[in-house]
Amino acid sequence: MCPVRELAIIGVGQTAYRRRHDCSTPELVSQAVTAALHDAGIPMQDVDIVTGGFAPDGLAGENCPDKRFLPAAGAVGRWSMRVNTGGTTGIAAAYAAMDLLAARYGDIAVAVGVERMAQAVNVPAVFNSIFDPVYERDTGLSTISMGALRAARMMMKWGYTPQVWAEVAARNYAHATRNPLAQITRPYTADEVLASRLLAWPIRQLDACPISEGVCAVVLAGAEVAQRGRAVAWVRGRASCTDTYNMGDRFDRADGDLVDLLSLHRATEKALGQAGLPSAAEADVVEIHAPFTHAETMAYAPLRFCAAEDGADLVRAGFGRWDSRPVINPSGGPQAANPVGATALVRLAECALQVRRAAGERQVPDAALAVATGQGGASQFSTCTVLTAA
Amino acid sequence: MAELTADQEPVPPLTIAGHWDFRYQYFAGDAASRFFHELGNGRIMGTLCPQCQRVLVPARGFCDACYVSTTDWRQVGDRGRLETFTILASRFPGLPDPPVVIGYVTLAGASTALLNFVLGLDLTDVEAAATRLLAQPAVEVRFRDQREGRITDFFFQLADA
Ligand SMILES: [Zn+2]
């Protein structure tokens, strides 16, 4: 059997993540891909494969957007495919590209994650339409209330409080001031978070992500191409795991409760194992895919930071701040910008920039090991990726 | 001679109004059709997984954990435990008017929880209502008089209300 092909991220291109009335979807895609190719020092002629993700079509109001956004990403004349797993769509596109490269269907691939949700006039109603129309949609369930149902459970089981989550938000907003691509660049304090509008108890406006759009692109390559003397990010571990859609099936389940985030627990176990790491706390940088503050803390136990019941104490101790290791979300994370179809790929791209020492003002000094998570569906699709500088 | 180029002055970004309001008929399927039919009889029914022995409520035709078809139907109780909840507090077009409580409840005899409205609470003080619900009070099913074969044919209310 051939040895597994080593893969690296050799280029990153991102648009700013905010409302972009000035650009069409294909224009945004081509900007990000052109920037990624420039960063990689690769002409489009050398690309073999183009994969892309674009989360709920209803948010953009364009059905089957793949027909326009894949050609804009360079798919003309090339192998291409779109994948879609809700919030994990962007990383699923990158994994599809990695799989095709690993199987030697090509040597260089472009993966894009695309979000156009500012085109939706009524975003919460579109998010209601993603839920089961038979048993659950009539309750008005949306992504916000789906998150709130978990947050309340975490308060019941583990003693989390809105104050703890407000500290998480304040840390993310502080980090985002370093990121010129972020949508929210004001360093809101914990008190401001607690005073913001209540959306669905206990989630307040500043616990939640903004409505963001934009495109993230990465260039991926096999080791033969990647070893050219340019800084690259080596993929040392990656895994995906899926849970049931039915949230009601996960309470007090033997394998793990709803808020144990079993799918991330298992994906992380595999990815860390591949990289030979006992815990994601060994990393210099961890980018956590969490559109809400409680969701970030829900990932702490799966990432092996602490036992689930100790998460609130970890936050109070200042875990994840800029002057500590690991730094959580040096980009500000999804709370500062959450372009849904791109977000999970943004986490990967930000980790790649960090270990390539190309993250500009948000560069964590000497970062050499980074971990990115992806989270989608009814908190049921999870991924974990480990990147290193060498 | 006229120049064959576009106007040079900046043009404001153009937006084009659109809408996407197609109509659908969702096919509830074998298990849900019977579940909703039984709601009409004033009964909450689940399906039994022959492998893990869970009683799945609301009813499903197969267990996605064991990946086997469910077999028998089981009636479950009309009282249960509130597993979690939220209080919708902000108004969004197309979603229920706030304040309103939704919650997952595991009914007696069921292995899984189902989502529905929790009605009858005083929500004038949202924090006080939330504190009460955090204690996971017992809740009970209340059927509506007029039932149409939807999950909203019933709701939950606190058992001590
Ligand atoms: Zn089963």
Structural class of the helix and strand makeup of chain B? alpha+beta
Question: Approximately how much beta-strand content do the residues of chain B carry?
Answer: 25-35%
List segments of chain A where confidence is low: pLDDT < 50 over at least 5 consecutive residues.
none
Strand content of chain A: 15-25%
Number of strand segments of chain B:
10
| H and E order of chain B | HEEEEEEEEHEE
Structural write-up:
- Helices cover about 35% and strands about 20% of the residues of chain A.
- Chain A is α/β, with parallel strands linked by helices and about 400 residues long.
- A ten-stranded mixed sheet of chain A has the order 3-2-4-7-1-8-12-11-9-10, sandwiched between helices. In chain A, strands 5-6 form a two-stranded antiparallel ribbon.
- The N and C termini of chain B lie far apart (about 85 Å).
- The longest helix of chain B is centred in the first third of the chain and has 12 residues.
- The chains are: A alpha/beta (about 400), B alpha+beta (about 160).
- Chains A and B meet through α5, α6 and β5 of A and β6, β7, β8 and α2 of B.
- β5 of chain A pairs antiparallel with β6 of chain B, so a sheet runs across the interface.
- The structure holds zinc ion.
- Zinc ion (ZN) binds next to loops of chain B.
